[in-house]
Amino acid sequence: MLPHGDDEEKWLAEGIAGIQHNAFYMHRALDSNDLKDALRYSVQMLSELRTSLLSPHKYYELCELGYLFDLACSECCLCRSWILMCFFSGDWEDMRAFDELRKMEMFFREETARGTISVIELYELVQHAGNILPRLYLLCTVGSVYIKSKEAPAKDVLKDLVEMCRGIQHPVRGLFLRSYLCQISRDKLPDIGSEYEGDADTVSHAIEFVIQNFTEMNKLWVRMQHQGPTREKDKREKERSQLRDLVGKNLHVLSQIEGVDLDIYKETVLPRVLEQVVNCKDELAQHYLMDCIIQVFPDEYHLQTLETLLGAFPQLQPTVDIKTVLSQLMDRLSIYAASSIEVLPEFLQVEAFSKLSNAIGKVIEAQVDMPVVGAITLYVSLLTFTLRVHPDRLDYVDQVLGACVKKLSGRAKLEDSRATKQIVALLSAPLEKYNDIVTALKLPNYPRVMDHLDNGTNKVMAVVIIQSIMKNTTCISTADKVEALFELIKGLIRDVDETQDDEIDEEDFKEEQNSVARLIHMLHNDDPEEMLKIICTVRKHIILGGPKRLPFTVPPLVFSALKLVRHLQGQDGDVIGEEISATPKKIFQILHQTIEALLSVPSPELALRLYLQCAEAANDCDLEPVAYEFFTQAFILYEEEVADSKAQVTAIHLIIGTLQRMNVFGVENRDTLTHKATGYSAKLLKKPDQCRAVYACSHLFWVDEQDGIKDGERVLLCLKRALRIANAAQQMANVTRGSSGPVVLFIEILNKYLYFFEKGNPQVTSSVLQGLIELIKTEMQTDGSSDPSADAFFASTLRYIQFQKQKGGAMGEKYDPIKI
Amino acid sequence: MVLVLAIGDLHIPHRAPDLPAKFKSMLVPGKIQHILCTGNLCIKEVHDYLKSLSPDLHITRGEYDEDVRYPENKTLSIGQFKLGLCHGHQIVPWGDLDSLAMLQRQLDIDILVTGHTHQFKAYKHEGGVIINPGSATGAYSSITYDANPSFVLMDIDGLRVVVYVYELIDGEVKVDKIDFKKTATTQSAH
């Protein structure tokens, strides 16, 4: 029965007093070299340690070095060592304990060497100590000297000691005693190549000794569990935990025995140890010891004894947390596999995968109450193992995923964040290993696992997949793979169920969709037929994305298709006899329908730009009706949907710029479109914008190529119209603001005149130019407030004219009549 | 020695997934003093990336840019040079050097940086220099077929500017350089 606080303090104080009392007499005896008396008093002193009244912690305090160092006695190695042996933290590396023990041994060795007493006599002598505990400690110490003296075979002494220690059945005291025995015997085992090696079978004696000590210690340790009232169970378990390394040390010693090779481990060591582990039927012990076995013995041994080892698991107590131990084992084996290539065939030879896989299956089946996260963690470990050891066996990988699916099916979507984290880890592992989504796509169970994620995590995983593709610049090259991929990431592509979060962060959403947009550029095949299939597959999916997603996903698809058109342009002619569906015409039809979808968003400005792109592409393919149709759509959007004046200015310039480059149109079509363009230009809201758009239209009638249109008259018409608008702007400014208007417009128009003058438009004569120059000069002089940028512009224009004049040759001649 | 990066028409993510890896490894923060970006990034991520390369970032609006607040054109002085920036879709005919020269005269600048055509150009005329850094991602263009990814680095030193053009051709980065010297300007009229 463990005592309560106050009482404990009282007993502790009494114990300390007793120790001090006897220590005093013991020292006196040592000083006078009276060994017999010294021993007697030491025994009395140490008898204080027979108390069962103290908890392990308090017991330690009793032996606390501090009290006894006060007995400033350097030769009192006996008591000091004794005290330190009871160093309850179990920290045997503590140098003080070790030093003191050595000193004590040294004392004995000196005495026996001196001949004061023979070792056998000493061995006899200490057994007369009245109380068993001190007797056994002293015996062990002497035993150490005995073995060292080689006056008896190590195996005999060890056998004697390990059996004598049975005398202490009190768990805590027994554990410490045997721990001490373990400690001092470590370097004295009759191992192969050791100085204590005996006759044949020597190693088996060593093993026998350690296993026996281990077995007894484990029994004592387990017994602690059953001492005391049930209400103090937790406290006991905590205390037991503190002492566990004392037991585990034996296994460590076993692993260090040279003579224990694979065969002996297999035949003797493992079965005996497992026997004890299973039979003790104690949860704490079983968990710790299984873990210990795995940590302490080499991985190659585990591999070769996998069946035996795994066979023990089902025999353990049902409450033992097997999954952690199993995970540990698999992780170790994974690392072992990664350590060197030569090791891998072993894994195959012992059929490691199937054994582990079966073991896990059994465990999950048996532990019905295991939470999902536990099962998934096991599968993650198994998957890591599989990817390291059998990366080429996709069937194994799929098997693991399949087992996961089985575990997850029949449940609602996962809510547990730890479980979902594990599943993300599970799904990310193949991606990282293979650096190639295509391989992951080959695993039938991969998408099934993803289906069991909640929407949020599904999207997270989808982003992980896309990032993996981008990082490895993987190219997805068939429509089937694209289909599979888009199925996987469907959480990003569309609203998967009606209850989609409206609270989704806008920034996050943008990032998500932009990553889908980038992904579309990774889908490619050089074969036009396949590429068209890919485009159609993507289109099929993104069209379901809804107005929020289309502005992100449509443009990359459009440009992907335009690239295909260009590719087909480059190819000569049709292959006769083959059914081709990948023709520019077909692609333009698809483009038309795709861009149309943007109207539902609505994104008229974006749609307008994309229509113009398609018009240019159709122009390059010589498809006049298709180009005309695209222009029609662009104009309709301009008329009906682009209301913002600034947007209109940009849009009209884009239309003019595109139209200027068209060479596919016949006269009629061209006339209709240019007429529309100039008309809308003149109708822009602000006069300066009108002016600029109109003079831009002048370029519609002059294309500086060999077969380009060069209609000088219509150019002039545009420029004159622009002048009129500039004039009107001037007058308006006078009237409304009492100031002059934008003189700069005139300078801009002058520059345009110069442009066409140089190109050889016969309608633009030097006198026309001269007139315009004079007009500007006048305007600028009458102008009250001067506009420095207009001044600079005019100055640089005049500089340019001067430069051209001085050029000489044809250009100089042309410019000659112009005076500035 | 002042380094000015001229870059643009990335069209991420509409026409290209990302800047070429070889370019990314060359463009390190802290080396470039100014960035002139012709436009068509198109998204904030690209803006942030450019901002990380140099704090002095100037951008003009391209017709596909997500942020519509970028200006139509911009002028600034670096050393002895006056530079101007404009995407170029506003100037019809697109890519026409004479029309661009008009803009240069209008902005009263020595160097005009412009884009839109996705084709590298460095053109000297009476009024100054026109530089088109091309498309940094080699994005699809209706104007230029098979554009190679390219960008320009200008080294401005006194009255001299050395224009380095970096082009990614068949997976390798090729560099070319062109020298321009500015004649000392006379006092301007204003």
TrEMBL record, chain A:
* Signal peptide positions (record): none
Compartments, record wording: Cytoplasm; Endosome membrane; Golgi apparatus, trans-Golgi network membrane; Prevacuolar compartment membrane
Please give the SUPFAM superfamilies that the UniProt record associates with this protein: ARM repeat
Q: Which GO terms describe its cellular component?
A: cytosol; endosome membrane; Golgi apparatus; late endosome; retromer, cargo-selective complex
The membrane topology noted for this protein in its Swiss-Prot or TrEMBL record is: Peripheral membrane protein
Which Pfam family would be a valid example here? Vps35
Keywords per UniProt: Cytoplasm, Endosome, Golgi apparatus, Membrane, Protein transport, Transport
Please give the biological process terms from Gene Ontology that the record holds.
intracellular protein transport; retrograde transport, endosome to Golgi
> What PANTHER family does UniProt report for this protein, alphabetically?
VACUOLAR PROTEIN SORTING-ASSOCIATED PROTEIN 35, VACUOLAR SORTING PROTEIN 35
Give the record's family classification: Belongs to the VPS35 family.
This chain belongs to the protein called Vacuolar protein sorting-associated protein 35
Organism source for this protein? Musa troglodytarum (fe'i banana)
Organism classification: Eukaryota, Viridiplantae, Streptophyta, Embryophyta, Tracheophyta
Automatic annotation (TrEMBL), chain B:
Output the Pfam families linked to this UniProt entry: Metallophos_2
- Keyword set includes Zinc-finger: no
Provide a GO biological process annotation.
Answer: protein transport
Check the record and name the InterPro entries matching this protein. Answer: Calcineurin-like_PHP_lpxH, Metallo-depent_PP-like, Phosphodiesterase_MJ0936/Vps29, Vps29
Q: Does the keyword Protein transport apply?
A: yes
Which keywords accompany this UniProt record?
A: Protein transport, Transport
Task: Please state every residue range assigned to the domain named Calcineurin-like phosphoesterase.
Answer: 4-157
One Gene Ontology cellular component: cytoplasmic vesicle
Indicate the family of this protein: Belongs to the VPS29 family.
Name this protein carries in UniProt: Vacuolar protein sorting-associated protein 29
Q: Which organism is it from?
A: Musa troglodytarum (fe'i banana)
